[in-house]
Write the structure tokens for this entry.
Amino acid sequence: MSLSRIALLAALLAVGCDNAPKASKGAPPPVTPASVGAAVAIVAHDASCAPAAPALICTGTLIEPDVVLTAAHCLDRDSPASLDVIVGPDLDGPRARVQSGAKHPKFERETFTHDVAVLILERPLATAPIPLRRTPLNSVGTTLDALGYGGAPGAAVGTIRQHRVLVRLGASEDHRLKLLPGDSMTCRGDSGGPVLARDGDKLALVGVTTHGDPACRELGFAARVDKHLDFIDAQIAAARVPAPPRRPFDPGEDLCRAPCASDNDCPAGLTCVVAERRCSFEGLPPARFSAPCTSSCDGDAPCIRVGASQCRCLDPCTPLETTGEPSRSGAPP
């Protein structure tokens, strides 16, 4: 995939989830210390080391140090490995790459049924996860906390910060919670975020924000956590099974001359690009990584992030190196 196409996809994703256009009016309540770590921002992974604002896609909830629960429809446009997670009150906090993920197998996009997904991170985040409530919530009228990074009521245009709204439980339906406005409602970009209830003196996750009325004023829905525990627990258990050992990534390795048949043939953190049979980072063409850089390289070569703190110039493999055939650029169709 070309870098221009990557940039275009990131721009398209920046609009966030598509079922709640505008935030309702009124000043948002402050995010409390007890809840600030509950929500994480899900953003498009930006391989470039050039400065750029993160493109918000959705919200999620950290339920294990390296596991995030979100909405399945947040994965409609890209693979989990093309995403990052940011924790904190804004998009300047600690960041972790998503390693893998899965939507609920019975997810229905048209009805938002079983709209839950689990993301596994490449590394744990140093933030306390939120426990799952494993029993039904049936007290109609109960006030709940909903958190997200979407259109915060009263926020300036272009501002992306975690915010909290208070909603009321309207009904506990088969696989979802029906939510009514308290002081406000969830809105665009809040999809996948936590709906929290008091469980004794602590907060517990009872729902995953999915959708609502177009004006973000009258009605919202959240997938019930207690009805999706089998899926969530199975994904966490699968992530705990040790993966086959893979060699560590070495930026000096000439990946253009190392064929692969599967991801297991690649260094840790890279995938096998089947068409070229070469290893690369998700979303990047097969390439070798040359000189270290900070934000730009000589010529047209981009400066690419190849680790938590490393940036290297990208030198794409030639067709002759990956397929054994010379480039056909300029040849007649």
